[in-house]
Design goal:
Blueprint: E1 6-13, E2 21-30, E3 40-42, E4 58-62, E5 65-72, E6 83-90, E7 95-102
Antiparallel strand pairs: 1-5, 2-3, 2-4, 2-6, 6-7
Length: 108
């Protein structure tokens, strides 16, 4: 029953263990750098110059680390995605992290 569900997950870590950190996180799955219409933004957001808005992401509060999870039920071919760009913003909207990761596909 879950065959058509794309699950995306990543871990965000707090590098300052003396302070809790709160903010927003967004991931963009990309097949290339050119055609933004083919990108998948999680959670869904309109991109401005290839970047998400700073308060449209999933809210988080962490002391140490947290696994972020998204599910996509609309039909898409996960094998087309080559790169995931993770964005982490502070509660005030400051960009704390923008980093590319390779997409690793795991079958069921």
């Amino acid at each position: 029953k879950d065959k058509n569900i794309l699950r995306v997950q990543y871990i965000i870590k707090n590098t300052d263990l003396n302070t809790k950190i709160a903010g927003y996180t967004v991931v963009i799955l990309k097949d290339n750098e050119v055609n933004q219409n083919e990108w998948l933004t999680l959670p869904s957001d309109n991109l401005i110059e290839g970047k998400p808005s700073e308060k449209a992401g999933q809210v988080f509060l962490i002391s140490n680390f947290r696994k972020i999870k998204f599910k996509v039920t609309e039909p898409t071919n996960p094998n087309r995605f080559k790169k995931a760009t993770v964005f982490v913003f502070s509660k005030k909207g400051e960009l704390l992290l923008e980093k590319d990761f390779p997409v690793l596909i795991k079958g069921l």
